[in-house]
Amino acid sequence: GLTISSLLVADGDPARVLGLVDADSDFWDADPATWVVNLLATEHRFLADAFAGTAPAPGGPFTTGSWSDSDWGPVLEGASGWIGVRRADAAPRSVGWGLLVEGVVEHVEVGAASAMMHVRGRYRDSESAS
Known about the structure:
The protein is mainly beta. It has helices spanning 27-30, 45-52, and strands at 6-10, 16-22, 34-39, 67-69, 74-76, 81-87, 93-95, 98-110, 116-119, 122-125. Strands 1, 2, 3, 6, 7 and 8 form a six-stranded antiparallel beta sheet that branches. It has a two-stranded antiparallel ribbon with strand order 4-5. It has a two-stranded antiparallel ribbon with strand order 9-10. Strand 9 and strand 10 (122-125) form a beta hairpin. The radius of gyration is 14 Å and the shape is globular.
């Protein structure tokens, strides 16, 4: 698990998820065929920091929060929503300081909580960000 700094969902048939991932992150070592994009709610600020490596998480960041399994990977309970993604055939390429990873959206679930964003160094929920 890791925190992605930039994420885009491109609608289409099929829809795609595009994310910028640090070239030095563990994501590339794991080389996952599938993954979950968990959309965090404002109460998950600490969890976001733990996955980003800026907050302590003894035992690893997955020890923080409650998780359930899906066909794509771990899903955070109480998340604003989640997307089940399968890696696209496109090879990663450098974009800015990161590598672009592309996946095909196979499953979407929307929760009740508003999504959290990180804007200008602060966490905000999507309803109060304007």
